[in-house]
């Protein structure tokens, strides 16, 4: 019965994504619509990154092993909101004025470098894939833990993946927005139920803290092995910078589609408070110290605590909330990957063919993530790999949002490559870093290579501006048709035709 309820909930989420929505027939419409999304639609799309399967499973697991170390998530999300308040409206204004559809368009235009645009697209797509896998893996774990069935887990992952592909291909960002609204409501409801179960089955927050402190005071200091102060500080810095400078390609469509920069500012002003909901899974992890076997795997802590304190029907609600928390980010990430590949990596002039290729890439990306997800992975490790890799875009974004770009595209490209290669070597080479986040370490060679290459560029071409003059121009946004004119500046006539359609 429980498995049936969860599968029905997953199907409902997928149906919601395509319900009453006209199929999008242009890449621009599929990506950013008419760039007029209102405040609340934009809010739910932006909030989608705050409540994901990592929030549901990963944070509880970190708290179970490291106590207050899990608060790093609230730290970096709050810092990122402060940075986003200033940076996102600027990115949105440039995108509206110059017809960007992706983050790679932004880099290509601001630095006048097609090579940089393709580099950003390839790096972005590669480092988003583990994040997509994280969502699908998390969904399977939620169903498996809720039902106790590995078979149900596999079926649910397959069904959810197919539904994500369908509603993303069919409705694009508007279908994703509809599902995001449902996701946030049911996710918050699920977290409230989890909190009620903890209070009823384990004790109030002061009781839980007192009992855990009696077990070991280490849980309330940053001294647990592998989750100490070094981990906390470096993880907050690198993820706060990455999210704050908006280096995640799948978060660009909501920013570019927003009706105004003022909407984005108002949203991030309140999103910092919205992150307080993350205290509930952290509390669940800490409460788990009192009632779960110490050998319990981190990813299973939250659902194990819920099963120990709540009746079965409420477990179904929590599982459906967790599934929604996986499917919405999965849809956004699949969009981000497909846009980078179809719009920036591949050179396709025909708009209809480009849209078809884009849809194929959505399906391929989700299929790859599903295949990796069925093999199981550590949730927290996948998140940190993605954040560390994409944080290598931070120096480039910092230069690009200035009114006048003062460095060349090739130096920026070389810096990004140096940083991402360093992340890959540390991660896959198993190099010990003493708890320092690999993404933060990699920023050092990134910046060094960038400045050395820029110094060489200025020596070889003294007095020559790093970017074409038109890359510094800005225009007032005319919603009646300026997108069409400006799209041709950066993306060619094809994008302009799509926007007009």
Helix content: over 70%
Give the count of helical stretches: 22
Note the main sheet: 2 strands, antiparallel
User: What is the ordering of alpha helices and beta strands?
Assistant: HHHHHHHHHEEHHHHHHHHHHHHH
| Strand residue percentage | under 5%
Overall number of strands:
2
Radius of gyration: 22 Å
Q: Summarize model confidence as the mean pLDDT.
A: 85
Shape: globular
Neighbour order of strands in the largest sheet: 1-2
Q: Span between N and C termini?
A: 47 Å
Low-confidence stretches: 474-501
Structural class determined from secondary elements = mainly alpha
Key attributes of the depicted protein:
two-stranded antiparallel ribbon, mainly alpha, globular, 75% helix
In short:
The chain is mostly helical. The chain has helices spanning 2-18, 27-32, 39-47, 53-66, 72-98, 103-110, 114-147, 150-201, 205-215, 229-244, 252-257, 261-274, 279-291, 301-309, 312-345, 351-374, 379-390, 394-400, 409-428, 438-460, 482-491, 493-500; strands at residues 223-224, 227-228.
Overall description:
Helix 9 (205-215) packs across helix 13. Strand 1 (223-224) and strand 2 form a beta hairpin. Strands 1-2 form a two-stranded antiparallel sheet. Helix content is 75%, strand content 1%. It starts with a helix and ends with a helix. The chain is globular and about 70 Å long. With 501 residues, the protein is an all-alpha fold. The protein contains 22 helices and two strands.
């Amino acid at each position: 019965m429980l498995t049936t309820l969860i599968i029905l909930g997953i199907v409902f989420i997928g149906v919601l994504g395509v319900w009453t929505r006209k199929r999008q027939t242009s890449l621009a419409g599929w990506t950013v619509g008419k760039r007029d999304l209102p405040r609340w639609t934009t809010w739910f799309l932006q909030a989608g990154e705050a409540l994901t399967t990592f929030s549901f499973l990963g944070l509880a697991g970190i708290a179970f092993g490291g106590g207050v170390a899990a608060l790093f998530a609230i730290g970096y999300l709050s810092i990122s909101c402060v940075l986003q308040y200033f940076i996102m409206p600027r990115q949105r204004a440039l995108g509206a004025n110059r017809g960007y559809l992706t983050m790679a368009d932004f880099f290509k235009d601001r630095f006048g470098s097609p090579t940089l645009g393709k580099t950003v697209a390839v790096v972005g797509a590669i480092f988003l894939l583990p994040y997509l896998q994280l969502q699908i893996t998390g969904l399977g774990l939620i169903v498996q833990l809720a039902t106790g069935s590995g078979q149900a887990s596999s079926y649910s992952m397959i069904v959810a993946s197919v539904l994500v592909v369908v509603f993303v291909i069919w409705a694009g960002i508007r279908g994703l927005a509809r599902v995001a609204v449902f996701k946030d409501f049911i996710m918050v409801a699920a977290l409230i139920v989890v909190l009620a179960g903890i209070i009823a089955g384990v004790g109030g927050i002061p009781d839980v803290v007192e009992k855990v402190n009696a077990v070991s005071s280490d849980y309330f200091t940053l001294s647990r092995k592998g989750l100490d102060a070094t981990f906390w500080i470096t993880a907050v810095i690198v993820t706060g910078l990455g999210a704050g400078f908006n280096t995640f390609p799948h978060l660009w469509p909501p920013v570019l589609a927003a009706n105004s920069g003022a909407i984005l500012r108002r949203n991030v002003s309140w999103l910092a408070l919205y992150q307080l909901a993350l205290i509930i899974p952290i509390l669940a992890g800490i409460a788990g110290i009192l009632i779960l076997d110490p050998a319990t795997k981190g990813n299973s802590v939250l659902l194990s605590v819920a099963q120990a304190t709540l009746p079965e029907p409420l477990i179904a609600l929590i599982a459906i909330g967790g599934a929604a928390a996986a499917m919405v980010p999965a849809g956004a990430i699949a969009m981000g990957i497909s846009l980078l590949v179809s719009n920036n990596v591949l050179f396709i002039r025909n708009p209809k063919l480009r849209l078809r290729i884009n849809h194929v890439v959505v399906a391929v990306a989700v299929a790859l993530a599903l295949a990796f997800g069925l093999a199981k992975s550590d949730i927290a490790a996948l998140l940190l790999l993605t954040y560390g890799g994409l944080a290598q875009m931070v120096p480039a974004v910092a230069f690009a949002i200035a009114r006048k770009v003062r460095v060349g595209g090739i130096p920026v490209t070389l810096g990004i490559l140096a940083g991402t290669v360093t992340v890959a070597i540390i991660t896959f080479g198993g190099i010990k870093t003493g708890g320092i986040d690999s993404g933060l370490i990699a920023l050092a060679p990134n910046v060094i290579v960038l400045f050395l290459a820029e110094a060489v560029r200025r020596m070889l071409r003294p007095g020559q501006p790093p970017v074409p003059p038109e890359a510094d121009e800005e225009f007032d946004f005319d919603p009646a048709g300026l997108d069409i004119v400006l799209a041709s500046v950066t993306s060619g006539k094809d994008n302009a035709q799509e926007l007009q359609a």
